[in-house]
Amino acid sequence: MALRFLPFSPLFNFSSSNRKRTVSTSATLASKQPVPGKPEADIVVIGSGIGGLCCAGLLARYGQDVLVLESHDVAGGAAHSFDIKGYKFDSGPSLFSGFQSRGPQANPLAQVLDALDESIPCVNYDSWMVYVPEGEFLSRIGPTEFFKDLEKYAGPDSAREWRKLLDAILPISAAAMALPPLSIRGDLGVLSTAAARYAPSLLKSFAQMGPQGALGATKLLRPFSEIIDSLGIKDPFIRNWLDLLAFLLAGVKTNGILSAEMVYMFSEWYKPGCSLEYPLHGSGAIVDALVRGLQKFGGRISLKSHVENIVVEKGRAVGVKLRGGQFVRARKAVVSNASMWDTLSLLPPEAVPKSYQDGIETTQQCESFMHLHLGFDAEGISDDLGIHHIVVNDWDRGVDADQNVVLISVPSVLSPDLAPPGKHVLHAYTPGTEPFEIWEGLDRRSNEYKNLKAERSEVMWKAVEKALGPGFNREKCEVKLVGTPLTHQRFLRRNRGTYGPAILAGKGTFPGHSTPIPQLMCCGDSTFPGIGVPAVAASGAIVANSLVSVTEHSRLLDAIGI
After folding, report:
1. Last residue of a domain, one of 497, 522, 545
2. Residue of 314, 350, 344, 316 whose CA lies nearest to 331
3. Any domain includes 553
4. What are the residue ranges of helices labelled H in 62-124?
5. Do 469 and 545 reside in the same domain of the chain?
6. Is 263 in contact with 27 (CB distance < 8 Å)?
7. pLDDT tens per residue across span 228-271
8. What are the φ/ψ torsions at residue 56 (nearest 5 degrees)?
């Protein structure tokens, strides 16, 4: 799985010394000329985020003629990587697990890569540094390590409560993972590819759980806070910690996240022998692998191909119009990997039912981000510096409060090729808590904008100084980039720079993948199962599966052994 660590990365508003930007990922080897080959395909995919690439790659694997249109000059969407002065920055997720997993319970992204006959070499590790009001500690994953932290920083009853939580939710993880994401499709064919195919393993999981575990499994589609409350978990440190994990995973606290998501995370982080994984050569290696898989099976990707409109004729989506006027026909379907709000803006108003438009326009949004990307000399920095650091300034304000939580990644400690010799590359950010309103309407060239950037980035600078210690000097950084919500809006084409829908479990559900417009489908973080790399990979797979026959879908499941 992958948490929403480093969810977006922009092309920042560079200072004059940093304006030159180069990109070195192999994904950029795809054609930069509008529409390689004929300007038509069976399926046209708008956007090359993880969801779009998973969808397109699987469609190519199924033998469909698929074309991905990407507005940017590099593939990957919010997960692309970029180079500046020899520093290669992650712009998407960086906290991963499950890449090496295989079989029915594997990570959805791992299942897609397996179907595309691609793999990602990784470095394994098991910890990250935590700086909280109670103190600082190295948090290790695994079934026993966290008890040591509880003894020092939590209440006297915390160890018993944590054990009670693990004993309750780890047994139901089998139910949460019983249906492989790659088996799901958006039509009644799911009865064959998922329900009938995996019914025996699902029933076995329920039998092994016993009555109490089976009762817990019925809460998988309810807020995780209900499980916490039912178990009588009261220790403030534990409840704060669980809110933090939920927020990093899905942008909401425990009262808004599906129990299934948290149970899945616990099964990956708190079971014997578990580990975290970081892709060698950076998270851009994930995008590269998906692009290779797409092209291996005959799929096409066209960069710098900005979609202006989805073309609707006789009530059906028949293609797209690019900036410059070129029409690209979709013989079978158009798939949008854009957010729900940005997809809506691509459609002719007269083709959109009012109820569909109102549903999108009234969906609450997650906030945006502040980002800090740094390249600096490693001299004076501790040799045992870890890759990840989490800083929480005030539990009482809540993990979803602005300027309160800062996440830091220094991936060059595990993959030194991401920085020049003797250097480090770093990304710090405030995770989906930066309000768009205070930035709205500002001129990016104005002193007001520049001053606000300096003011709102200071919390990240202070967090970096805390994590890196006295050997770090911000004035000596060779690369300093600050990204804002306007950067997100401009370069990632995200409505109001948002991370995605703020849909609370128990109060709403993420939309499905079909739309009221025939031959138009959607994937990505605005659709089921929601936000995060595993979720968007699953959404792309569901759409791809839905566009082929049940027979073809079943053959793929057989071929990859799930």
Report:
1. 497
2. 316
3. yes
4. 108-115
5. no
6. no
7. 999 999 999 999 999 999 988 888 899 999 888 888 888 888 87
8. -65, -40
